[in-house]
Write a structure and sequence with these properties.
This protein is mainly alpha-helical. The chain has a domain of 144 residues: Ferritin, core subunit, four-helix bundle (Ferritin, Up-down Bundle). It is 68% helix and 0% strand. The chain has 8 helices and no strands. Helix 6 runs antiparallel to helix 7. It is globular and about 60 Å long.
């Protein structure tokens, strides 16, 4: 084999140096991206864990199932003290009576929640959220009828949203223990909403927004009411 001349050797060394520089240069930006602004592996792992479905003796336990246990607990952490305070401070007897009953019922619901969470190894919070603390402060800063109105408005809005989440989990969970718990929650929260409505302070602006729908029929005219629909058995035949 012929030995390369000095020019060829120099060209070969230059080519090798360029190739090495390109290789290292191509890797460097990736390393910087990972360190500067790329997704952190620990954060991705944590998010994957939160979204994971795990096996239990009662069936699959999904993220919505675990979230419901946390949401019921969060509701208890602020609604129990609000209900207890309202039993003393509310201006109307109906408000004092009904909110005190909600606090008592939340204590029983919290006991059920803690039992299910322990069986499914789901951690529960020990403090209200920042938003819930702001609601408690807002309610506590009122007096007279304003106190009643504010307490009922905040509680009814929160209970309406919780009821929607309970219904969604009750309808879809594959976990039989969570399904039974969701059914119990549904009964409790339905009663809470009824108690709040019994105070006379529930108005349209204390309710959550209606669910979005895509196939609702057009409203009928007030001057031309439609005839009542026939019984389903009369139109399906058989």
């Amino acid at each position: 084999m012929r030995t390369p001349g000095p020019h060829a050797a120099a060209a070969c060394m230059l080519t090798t140096a360029l190739a090495t520089a390109l290789l290292l240069g191509g890797c460097a930006p990736m390393a910087r991206q990972s360190g500067d602004g790329g997704a952190q592996p620990s954060r991705i792992a944590a998010e994957n864990a939160r979204q994971a479905t795990v096996s239990t003796r009662w069936g699959p336990l999904g993220p919505a199932d675990r979230a419901l246990l946390v949401q019921v607990r969060q509701a208890a952490l602020w609604e129990i003290p609000v209900g207890r305070e309202a039993a003393r401070r509310a201006s109307r007897p109906a408000t004092r009576r009904d909110l005190a009953e909600i606090a008592r019922r939340h204590e029983r619901l919290d006991e059920l929640d803690r039992g299910v969470a322990a069986q499914l190894d789901v951690p529960l919070p020990d403090r209200p959220t920042a938003e819930q603390l702001s609601w408690m402060s807002e309610i506590g800063g009122k007096s007279g009828t304003d106190y009643d109105k504010t307490a009922v408005a905040r509680l009814r809005m929160a209970q309406g949203l919780l009821y929607q989440r309970i219904a969604a989990v009750r309808a879809s969970t594959r976990n039989t223990l969570v399904r039974r718990f969701a059914k119990q929650c549904e009964t409790f929260v339905h009663t809470h909403m009824t108690l709040l409505e019994g105070t006379g302070f529930v108005t349209g602006d204390t309710l959550p927004d209606p669910p979005a729908v895509t196939e609702a029929p057009e409203p009928g005219g007030a001057n031309q009411p439609r005839p009542p629909a026939p019984a389903a058995t009369s139109v399906i035949g058989g």
